[in-house]
Amino acid sequence: MIHGxxxxxxxxxxxxxxxxxxxxxxxxxxxxxxxIWLMVDVGTPIEINP
Length: 50
Description:
Blueprint: E1 2-3, H1 13-16, E2 26-27, H2 30-39
Parallel strand pairs: 1-2
């Protein structure tokens, strides 16, 4: 899953990018989630490569 921060904790995104606590998800800042949402259709497969 690609997700941002819990409601009300968007400011915390800048800090959380330095920690690996996403449990297999791709965690981004809330502003980045909004940008991705506008660019990608719902249901579009996302492939993550190392």
